[in-house]
Amino acid sequence: MKFFLDTADIAEIEEAASWGALAGVTTNPSLYARVGGTLAAFPEHISRICALVNGPVSAEAVGVTREEIIREGRELSALASNVVVKIPTTVEGLAATHALATEGIRVNMTLCFSVPQAILAARSGARYVSPFVGRFDDISEDGIEQLSLIIEALANYDFSDVGVAKENVEVIAASIRSAQHVTQAALLGADIATVPFNVLKKCVEHPLTTNGLAAFEKDWEKVKNL
Questions:
Q1: How does pLDDT run along the chain (226 residues), one tens digit per residue?
Q2: How do strand 107-112 and strand 128-131 relate by DSSP bridges?
C-alpha cells in the first residue's frame, strides 16, 4: 500500500517527503483554506507541492457544471505533469471525468461512498477512486466495511480499457482518522491510504518502540560509564 499525505501544508509535505515513504499528496478546498491560501495564490501553491513530491498530487476542481469542471481540470493539469484532477462523484463529475480522461488527464473521483458510485467512476475513466472511511464513522456506520465492499467489487473487473492511460483504477482509502484505519485498509488491499500528517506520525509511533529505545539508551549510559 502506498502512502499519500492529505494536506496542503508545505512544511508537512517537506517533512513527510524526507522520510522517503511519501508516494503522493491529496488536497481539497478545505485543506487549502486551512493553511490560509488565497484564490490568486492557488496555482503557485499547487505547483510548489508538485515540485516537492515524486508522485501524483490531487488538486480539486470546484466547478458545479461539467463545463466548469472540465475547464478547471484542464487548467489544473497544465500546472505540472504530476497533477491529478480531483472531481466529486456526481453526474456532472462523471461527465467531466469522461471528457478529461479522453484527453489523457488523470482524475481522482472523490466523495465516493458506495459500490455503484465507485464502478461508475471507474467506467468513466477515473484513474483513482477515493472511498471515504471516517465520514461513515461520523454517522455511526462502518466506513471500513464500505471500503471493503468497494475494493472487492472493483477487483472483479478490469477497467484498463477506459480512458487513455490504459491503467487500471486504484482505490485510495480516504478520510482516514487513525493508524488502525490504515491497518484495516492495508489488510483489505487498498492501493493507497491518504492520511493527515498527524495520522502518518502515529503510524510510525508505538509504545513498545518508545520503551525499547529508552531501555537501550539507559543501558548504553551504563556502558559509557564502565
A1: 999 999 999 999 999 999 999 999 999 999 999 999 999 999 999 999 999 999 999 999 999 999 999 999 999 999 999 999 999 999 999 999 999 999 999 999 999 999 999 999 999 999 999 999 999 989 988 999 999 999 999 999 988 777 654 568 999 999 999 999 999 999 999 999 999 999 999 999 998 998 999 889 888 888 888 7
A2: parallel
Amino acid at 35: V
Among candidate residues 2, 86, 166, 202, the one labeled active-site is 86
Q: pTM (2 decimals)?
A: 0.92
| CATH classification at residue 169 | 3.20.20.70
Q: Look up the domain containing 154 and give its range.
A: 2-224
Catalytic site includes residue 86: yes
Count of domains forming the chain:
1
The neighbouring-strand residues paired with 173 are 193
